[in-house]
Amino acid sequence: MTTRVVVLGAGFGGLELTTLLSDRYGAGMDITLIDKSDTFTFGFAKLDVMFGRKMPADVRHAYRQILKPGVRFVQTSVRSFDPSTKRVVTGAGTFDADILVVALGADLDPAATPGLVEGGHEFYSVEGAFALRSVLPSFDRGHAIVGVTGKSFKCPPAPSETALLLHDYLVERGKRGETTISVVMPFGTPVPPSPDTSAAILAAFAERDIRFVKDTLVSSLDPTRKVAHLSNGTEMPYALFLGIPVHRVPQVVVESRLASDPFNWVPVNKQTLETKFPGVYAVGDVNGVGTPKAGVFAEGAARVVADGIIARIEKGPSPAPYAGAGSCYIEFGHEMVARVDVNFLGGPKPTGTYLPPSEALVAEKTHFVSSRVARWFS
Ligand SMILES: Cc1cc2nc3c(=O)[nH]c(=O)nc-3n(C[C@H](O)[C@H](O)[C@H](O)COP(=O)(O)OP(=O)(O)OC[C@H]3O[C@@H](n4cnc5c(N)ncnc54)[C@H](O)[C@@H]3O)c2cc1C
């Protein structure tokens, strides 16, 4: 009998998993990939659009281009699912699975930070980042804060990258002299697992006169007085607030009982990424395996789950356990890209190796994108 695999969420994790299973089984597997959106956008492409480096249409990849044997893409919202029966209820009907993969990512909750919706901007959603494209040209004076509002957030280097790109953007427009930039982050350094990466980012900040406020969150904004209240009890004036909103476990996942509450990411077996329900896996940002919330980790997790599903079907030996390792590209400004190779589960504590900015890494990042687009959307 054909195995029915239902994958919830067509982000980094869902796309990679679907591709691997289709490559292996073709029409011999019945794969349903469900997403509420009609397009996929790489997280870092949001920065490209917001700073006017790319047009929105250039970074949206339409799911209708997915033409893979055995795969059916369904654009609809997941309304509920039951991990014990593996039944999924959506706006387009009910789906029953033999294997269920939850890859719904992390939800963003700007309203959880008082004043953010009324008095600031967020750049973590596609809509928020694309809207900033027409807001940034009017920022020509005063203080810009790139501020994190919750402890767990996607792509820890992204706030630092944003500050460096904002610096370049303002220099190009002749406005850097009238503006100041601060980054407010809940960590002691920009990229804690890699002291070398953090030192290089802090040196770049010092060169560009960007202030780094460590171990601190933005708790609220007062849009009337135009000040941000910080978790250390101080306040900071702002003319432009670029926020990283509070991240939450998607409500539909909490209601499924896979997560106990909106701030406890889905517990999984650290080696297989299977949840406590047999045949139900959680991949990517939605799980609590202990790696950062980043596409490269979601992709690595998808590979482990694909191997696990293959071993299950073919009754093969247990696959290699999840390594929790990945390489993140870092926009360093001046059109340069650096890289940090991080490993979260390979030793007693996370480690990171820094590769300084270079033209070669710019090309490598471009290839990273084009190779995924070719694999996932062919
Ligand atoms: C500004 C920024 C820069 C970033 N830079 C990088 C980077 O350089 N490198 C890197 O590796 N990562 C980066 N990231 C992080 C990366 O984008 C995410 O970690 C990654 O997308 C997570 O993959 P995922 O598959 O777990 O979830 P996602 O890619 O978020 O996919 C989840 C999918 O589920 C769908 N969904 C959610 N709820 C429902 C529902 N109820 N019904 C139907 N569909 C639903 C969503 O539409 C979405 O398509 C960045 C993120 C941001 C915001």
Q: Can you describe this structure?
A:
The radius of gyration is 21 Å and the shape is globular. The chain is α/β, with parallel strands linked by helices and 378 residues long. It has helices spanning 12-25, 45-50, 56-59, 116-119, 126-132, 158-172, 195-208, 251-255, 295-314, 359-377; strands at 4-8, 30-35, 39-40, 61-62, 71-75, 78-82, 87-90, 93-96, 99-102, 107-109, 121-122, 142-148, 179-184, 210-213, 218-222, 227-230, 235-237, 240-244, 246-248, 280-282, 325-333, 336-343, 351-358. The site of flavin-adenine dinucleotide has 35 residues, from helix 1, strand 2, helix 2, helix 9 and strand 21.
Give the integer mean of the pLDDT values: 97
Largest sheet: 5 strands, parallel
β-strand number: 23
Helix % is: 25-40%
- Provide the low-confidence segments as ranges: none
How many helices in DSSP terms? 10
What is the general shape? globular
Structural class: alpha/beta
Q: Whole-number radius of gyration?
A: 21 Å
Give the bound compounds: flavin-adenine dinucleotide
* Spatial separation of the terminal alpha carbons: 27 Å
Amount of beta strand: 25-35%
Strand order in the largest sheet: 5-2-1-9-20
Give the topology:
Layout: E1 4-8, H1 12-25, E2 30-35, E3 39-40, H2 45-50, H3 56-59, E4 61-62, E5 71-75, E6 78-82, E7 87-90, E8 93-96, E9 99-102, E10 107-109, H4 116-119, E11 121-122, H5 126-132, E12 142-148, H6 158-172, E13 179-184, H7 195-208, E14 210-213, E15 218-222, E16 227-230, E17 235-237, E18 240-244, E19 246-248, H8 251-255, E20 280-282, H9 295-314, E21 325-333, E22 336-343, E23 351-358, H10 359-377
Parallel strand pairs: 1-2, 1-9, 2-5, 9-20, 11-18, 12-13, 12-18, 13-14
Antiparallel strand pairs: 3-4, 6-7, 7-8, 10-19, 15-16, 16-17, 21-22, 22-23
Helix pairs in contact: 1-9, 6-7
